[in-house]
Amino acid sequence: MADSYAIIRLGNKQHRVRDGETLVVDRLSTEAGKSFEPDVLLGEGMVTATVIAHERGPKIRIGKYRRRTGYKRHNGYRSATSRVQISLGAAKRATTAKKEAPPKAEAPKAETPKAEAAAAKLPQSYEEMTVAQIKEAAATWKPAQLEAALAFEQANAARKGAIAALESALKED
Asked: Measured between alpha carbons, how far is residue 137 from residues 100, 151, 170 in Å?
């Protein structure tokens, strides 16, 4: 699966951006620390840009010279720039919602009482947890909760990292 990206327009220039990327663009009128929504030319969802800081670019030296006359002039120029943090919030949420929806629709609701009991033993808000959160929290869970979470992963989500973390936590107990 390819990473999601969008093409946006900032200051009459087009930029291909990904979630969490930082851009240095021509000075924007938005204040530092404020967020705005740039024009999205290609891509799904909403793109939010947060101005991190207003800076100045590197100094460009400009020199004029005419031979045999002693004429030399030097001038410098630093462009005004803004550093912008990009987040593809809505597109990311939409793709995760699409991934979670089909397994729930496929799973029959009238399962065996054993499966219902395992679902009741799942830790709170387990379905919304990321793999990293599962790895951290698995050390504090009871064996029944670990087994229920492992059964849930194998039946629904099948996230390899979460399954490995739950299996190692069960071995430790």
From this structure: 21, 17, 13
Q: Give the C-alpha separation, 34 to 31, whole Å.
A: 6
Residue 173 and residue 143 in contact, taking contact as beta carbons nearer than 8 Å: yes
For 171, the 3-state DSSP assignment is helix
Q: If DSSP codes are grouped into helix, strand and coil, which group holds residue 128?
A: coil
- Closest to 15 (Cα-Cα) out of 46, 44, 39: 39
Give the residue among 99, 81, 97 at the shortest CA–CA distance from 89. 97
- Coil, helix or strand at residue 30: coil
pTM confidence score:
0.48
Question: What pLDDT, in 10s, does the model give residues 36-82?
Answer: 999 999 988 899 999 999 999 999 999 999 999 999 999 999 999 99
Contact between 79 and 55 under an 8 Å Cβ cutoff? The reply is no
* pLDDT tens-digit series, residues 16-42: 999 999 999 999 999 999 999 999 999
What tokens were used for 136?
Answer: 């951290």
